[in-house]
Write a structure and sequence with these properties.
87 residues, mainly beta
Length: 87
């Protein structure tokens, strides 16, 4: 993946960093210019829920090579509706 930019939606998983055993969707606000190891980035942004709503603002430390583009629409289709829901 190319370097993330403001507004990008990412699906952050374990290949990006071991802390993401449970993957998250992440909307990038900015790439922080902090010095770090080659191939690693500090990103500031919002963690999103499956609906695309921001649930937490955070900074994450990730390997650029492990980042994936996010697709909330596909993720929403993969999540079954609750019983009795009117989806």
């Amino acid at each position: 993946m190319t370097a993330p930019r403001s507004g990008d939606l990412l699906y952050v998983t374990r290949p990006a960093s071991v802390q993401f055993i449970n993957p998250i969707f992440f909307r990038v606000i900015r790439v922080l210019g902090w010095r770090t190891y080659d191939g690693w980035l500090w990103l500031e942004g919002y963690q999103l829920n499956i609906k695309g709503d921001a649930v937490a603002r955070r900074a994450i430390f990730v390997q650029q090579a492990g980042l994936r583009s996010g697709d909330l629409r596909a993720a929403c289709e993969a999540v079954p509706l609750a019983q009795g829901g009117s989806g």
